[in-house]
Amino acid sequence: MPVLSEQFREILYEQRRLLLVTWIMFFIALGFYLMIPEITSKHLPPQVDYPYTKQVRDTFWVISIVSAAFLVWVKSHSHTVQAIFRASRQPLEIMDLKGDTPVEKDAERLIFSYRSRMIVAFSLSEMIAIFGLVLALIGDYRSDQQVFSLISASLLIYFYPSRTFFDELIGECERREMRRT
To answer: Could you tell me which of 120, 119, 92 has the C-alpha nearest to residue 19?
Structure first.
């Protein structure tokens, strides 16, 4: 028997839908990043004599590889049901919880923690594509941009906010509440 009311469950699932829309917007932005150099190169060709282009390129590659590896590691260690539960227990002073009962407040804190982690992961994934865009604009590294965008898209797919995982979070929240009572 579900512990959370249907109305409150709908509020929680609305958060997942908003997260999904955010994910889609990040994905759409990747397409725009790929179009920008095509459009701007007709009017503003990249400088070929910029003195630090090679160093910037090398730095972006290192940062991107480390970031991608870090994100994969983080997902396997910090994006589990148990890790999100632990994080949701941290005090949140800036959040106005909408739940009426303690279990509803716990569930909302849990979803807030999950949503926050996912948005950070989306942003860090997108950062890699932005590095590729910068390289394409300053040094005409279009092939680098395509690789960076592919890495970014792969990470976004890896961090897709699945309904299955969301259901697991809600289910675990209800199981824990039933054990408490």
So the answer is: 119
Residue type (1 letter), 170: I
- In tens, the pLDDT along 40-79 reads 877 776 666 777 888 999 999 999 999 999 999 998 888 7
Contacts of 97 (CB under 8 A, 6+ apart): 104, 105, 108, 109
CA–CA distance, 176 with 171 (Å, rounded to integer): 9
Q: What's the rounded Cα separation, in Å, for the pair 114 and 12? A: 11
Q: Taking the CB of residue 51, how many other CB atoms lie within 10 A of it?
A: 7
pTM: predicted TM-score of the whole model, two decimal places: 0.84
Other beta carbons within 10 angstroms of residue 63's beta carbon come to 13
- Up-side HSE of residue 145: CA atoms within 13 Å toward CB? 20
10 Å Cβ neighbour count for 134?
A: 19
3-state DSSP assignment of residue 27: helix
